[in-house]
Specification:
heterodimer; A: about 110 residues; mainly alpha; 4 helices; about 80% helix; elongated; B: two-stranded antiparallel sheet; two-stranded antiparallel sheet
Chain lengths: ~110, ~650
């Protein structure tokens, strides 16, 4: 295991995976119409960033990146709680979760 | 130790009256308003009277020493080497002036209680009147030109407010504006004079200027002349002299007691007072002095000729005021300042009396001011008639009434000034003839003969109005008995000694005789025209249509100013300033800026679609753009294509 991790897989592959996940998150955010899916895309982006943090922390032998991941996870958990609450409130008010229909702030 | 150590109370008590009546007057009962309004000038007059008693007869605990200066302990303006204090000065000149202002002011306040009794804005009227007294006493007491300027502008404001007191009447509102604007022209002169004083003497304090002028005999002509002429311009505005007299006749739109107080007795004499106060400056500039004399003599004659044919009782008096002020300027111009102040004092008495009596007539006739509709009022208004008679005889210059002494003092001083002085004297005597004529014309038309509007039932005014008339009549009789010698000796510390040629006593008697003879001639002509052959005036007017029309239309001066100054100004304002500058340049640029903003907003508002996903897309695109900018080594990229960008650090 340790050999596989430390020697064989180069840094760039992790970063590419992270970028791919992030791009997928953006894509999902932009094209999905269901609010819950959009919400999940955000989580995906957050975790893609987490992966980068961990990668670099490992690469530079520093613990700060790892700690930051915990922060991100905590914020993500809080955000999930609040976000879901908002989604439920929106659904109760408008009986829909289609993002395009939620446009009260428009000019 | 000095008994009069509270000069500041003299202006501030009327100011307190102004505040009380101005702020609370509408809610206070009328007797309270009256009490406050009368207490203010009464208290000021009492302080001045105590100071005068102290000085004249040393009555009171302390002996007064004049001049007495009182300075506000807090510095007013202190910039670099420039120090201006809020200082008040009581000397012989300001003492006389204060006695006149507060004394006549008190009488006219009392008279107003009766005259304005049925007025709706009773409290407003008295608050303005108190405000006027505040500024006028400030002007008189001022120890330097800047404090005087405050009073100067303030009386202008009070005058504006009181002329336009019946602001619902368009003519009154217009007259107020006219007075204010014409006075501004004069004030420019006063202001420039002050700037020049500061630049050349470094001080505005009257006594310091006099000291500096006295120390250096090199101060003659040149800059002193310019300063004196600038101050003269200010004085012609305030004192209604040529060429700025035009506002005073229109000022008669105000209530009659106001005309008596402000536009006859006190405020319009401020110009004379200012020249006397700055007499050292004028003494150092013979040219400026002769300009003062010429302006005075010309105004005296000019206004008197217009007064001949006016039919509004108040306008006759207004032109007579301008004419009498011309006498005072003439007196100043021949360096007979004490004579000018003497005439100022007697004029305050008899002209206030004339106006108040005219007000009593107008009051008795229910607002009628046209001489042609009066006549035969002698029996109906006996007290008014007798007091008015005193005033008419006084202004015509009959001994032993007040104006006889003061007018003769001025004419005598003018006569002693060489050949030019003889001309000035002749103009003065001619004016005296005209004055006697138009005053007796007014007298005959108002009180004698048959009533020309029999259906109007005139009634005598209440004693609240007649009381001041009687007091002023007594003053008009006795005000001149002090004599110019004693008066001049008293004023000498403030205005310089009176110059009299030796052995001229006989000449003085001859000149007095001429003046009285001239007054008799004027009376006789008026008697013939308006008593014996009442059809003659109309025939004379018909025989000389040209001169008559010229006089009735006041030499077309208003029309001339309208065409030469007002109309070009209006046209410039409308077309150049209004259309080109305001609408085209300023308005155009404002429209341009607004248009750009609107257009940009119209474009950019499309971004604000309300679609969350489009927002997110722009966000992502922005982030991508930033990443591209930061991460891509642009210099290298462009460098490979041979393009050189000068980025920071490269």
């Amino acid at each position: 295991m340790s050999a596989l991790f430390s020697q064989e897989v180069p840094l760039v592959l992790y970063l590419l995976l992270s970028a791919a996940l992030f791009a997928l998150g953006i894509l999902g955010f932009l094209i999905k119409r269901n609010l819950i899916t959009v919400f999940m895309s955000i989580e995906l982006m957050l975790n893609a960033v987490n992966l980068s943090f961990v990668t670099f922390a490992h690469q530079w032998h520093q613990v700060r990146g790892q700690i930051f991941v915990f922060f991100v996870m905590m914020v993500a958990a809080a955000e999930a709680a609040v976000g879901l609450a908002i989604i439920i409130a929106v659904f109760r008010a408008r009986a829909t979760l289609a993002v395009d229909r939620i446009d009260l702030m428009k000019l | 130790m000095n008994a009069i150590s509270h000069l500041w109370l003299i202006p501030l008590l009327p100011f307190a009256g102004f505040l009380i009546n101005g702020l609370l007057g509408r809610r206070l009962p009328k007797p309270v308003v009256t009490t406050v309004a009368l207490l203010a000038p009464l208290a000021s007059f009492a302080i001045v009277a105590v100071a005068a008693l102290n000085f004249f007869w040393h009555i009171g605990p302390f002996a007064s020493v004049l001049p007495f200066t009182e300075t506000c302990p807090i510095a007013w303006i202190s910039i670099g080497t420039l120090h201006i204090d809020f200082s008040l000065v009581l000397d012989q000149l300001s003492l006389v002036m204060l006695l006149v202002v507060t004394g006549v002011g008190l009488l006219i306040h009392r008279y107003s209680v009766g005259y304005m009794a049925h007025e709706e804005s009773y409290a407003r009227y008295f608050s303005y009147l108190n405000l006027f007294l505040f500024f006028m006493t400030t002007l008189v007491l001022a120890g330097n030109a800047l404090v005087m300027f405050i009073g100067w502008e303030g009386v202008g404001l009070a005058s504006y407010l009181l002329i336009g007191f019946w602001f619902q009447k368009p003519a009154a509102a217009e007259a107020g504006k006219k007075a204010f604007i014409v006075n501004r022209i004069g004030d420019v002169g006063f202001l420039i004079g002050m700037f020049l004083l500061l630049a050349n003497f470094g001080t505005l304090t009257f006594s310091e200027i006099a000291t500096k002028l006295g120390q250096d005999p090199g101060w003659t002509g040149g800059v002193v002349t310019v300063i004196a002429l600038c101050l003269l311009l200010g004085a012609t505005g305030k004192s209604a002299q040529l060429p700025l007299y035009i506002w005073l006749p229109d000022a008669m739109e105000g209530p009659t007691p106001v005309s008596a107080l402000i536009h006859a007795a006190t405020m319009v004499t401020a110009g004379v007072y200012m020249i006397a106060r700055n007499h050292v400056l004028f003494d150092h500039s013979p040219f400026a002095l002769s300009v003062v004399a010429i302006v005075g003599a010309a105004t005296a004659l000019f206004a008197a000729t217009i007064g001949l044919v006016q039919n509004d009782i108040k306008r006759v008096l207004a032109y007579s005021t301008i004419s009498q002020l011309g006498y005072m300027f003439l007196g100043c111009g021949v360096a007979a300042y004490s004579a000018a102040i003497f005439h100022l004092m007697t004029h305050a008495f008899f002209k206030a009396l004339l106006f108040l009596a005219a007000g009593s007539v107008i009051h008795g006739l229910g607002g009628e001011q046209d001489l042609r509709k009066m006549g035969g009022l002698r029996k109906k208004l006996p007290v008014t008639f007798w007091t008015m008679t005193v005033a008419v005889f006084a202004i015509a210059g009959f001994p032993p009434l007040a104006a006889f002494f003061s007018k003769d003092a001025i004419l005598f001083a003018a006569f002693q000034q060489g050949t030019a002085g003889k001309v000035l004297w002749f103009v003065g005597v001619l004016t005296a003839l005209l004055t006697a004529f138009y005053m007796f014309r007014l007298w005959y038309l108002t009180f004698l003969g048959e009533s020309r509007s029999p259906d109007v039932h005139a009634h005598e005014s209440p004693w609240s109005m007649l009381g001041p008339l009687v007091i002023l009549a007594l003053l008009s009789i006795g005000g001149g008995w002090i004599g110019i010698e004693r008066f001049a000796a008293f004023l000498a510390p403030a205005t310089g000694p009176r110059a009299v040629e030796a052995g001229s006593a006989n000449l003085e008697y001859i000149l007095s005789g001429v003046a009285v003879a001239v007054a008799l001639i004027g009376w006789y002509i008026a008697h013939v025209l308006y008593k014996q052959k009442t059809e003659r005036p109309a025939q004379l007017a018909a025989a000389m249509p040209g001169p008559y029309k010229l006089l009735v239309n006041k030499y077309y001066v208003d029309e001339f100013y309208g065409a030469m100054i007002v109309k070009p100004l209006m046209l410039t304002s409308t077309y150049v300033l209004g259309w080109v500058v305001d609408k085209a340049i300023l308005g155009g640029s404002a429209w341009l800026l607004g248009g750009v903003a609107t257009f940009a907003g119209a474009l950019l508002q499309r971004w604000q679609s309300g679609n969350i996903r489009s927002y997110a897309a722009w966000l992502a695109a922005g982030a991508a753009a930033v990443l591209l900018f930061v991460l891509v080594p642009w210099a290298t990229v462009f460098g490979t294509f041979g393009i050189h960008l000068t980025l920071a650090g490269h």
